[in-house]
């Protein structure tokens, strides 16, 4: 997709992290932004950052992506205001730590409502207007955990595998149209997702240990992640791997699709 001044870009989860970084990156290119997040304060901070650094037009919407009626209204409002949408980035997501035995059904349902159904609602609501554009793109944020699974992340991995499967199918269905589709698989990005994660029936000590671990591996600045994603959009890349760790894990999973957990454990020992 050729990004240029006047493109209308929709970004969910724009109140922090990768979503905010994407908003700043696209605004610098002159894109018109429609930004959504459940966190009103974070969304306001993003808007203030945009107004102080760029002259790009920006409209914000406080909503829960897991609410289909809210997403449908969001799409209607954006189309009414701008008349077009060229880029949809389904970025909003949450995390849930814990083994299958530790997490509750309610927690898994909560996770899927945002990570998976929020993405589906976004695609369904905006696809009709995207198909009317001469050049359009859908970007769905999966994860490295949408490429491989690790213990303690069954629910999160399942949601991100689901995002990947939906996205890859959508890409094939839209082949030959003006709409390109990309799945994004970030590795360790330095955002608040781990700090804001929910946990299953763990002790405080176990939860703190989990947060410390993720704080240690989340190292890539969101601005660099956004730059990689935008470059992937411009190249119409079907799969965008964000970070060297994502690239390494992707290779390991492809080489040893069944025994990759053993390979990853050996690699971790070597790195230490």
UniProtKB/TrEMBL annotation:
Pfam families: adh_short. GO terms for molecular function: oxidoreductase activity. Keywords: Oxidoreductase. Residues 7-192 form the Ketoreductase domain. One of its GO terms (cellular component) is membrane. InterPro entries: KR_dom (IPR057326), NAD(P)-bd_dom_sf (IPR036291), Sc_DH/Rdtase_CS (IPR020904), SDR_fam (IPR002347). PROSITE patterns: ADH_SHORT (PS00061). Belongs to the short-chain dehydrogenases/reductases (SDR) family. This is Short-chain dehydrogenase. The lineage of its organism: Bacteria, Bacillati, Chloroflexota, Ktedonobacteria, Ktedonobacterales.
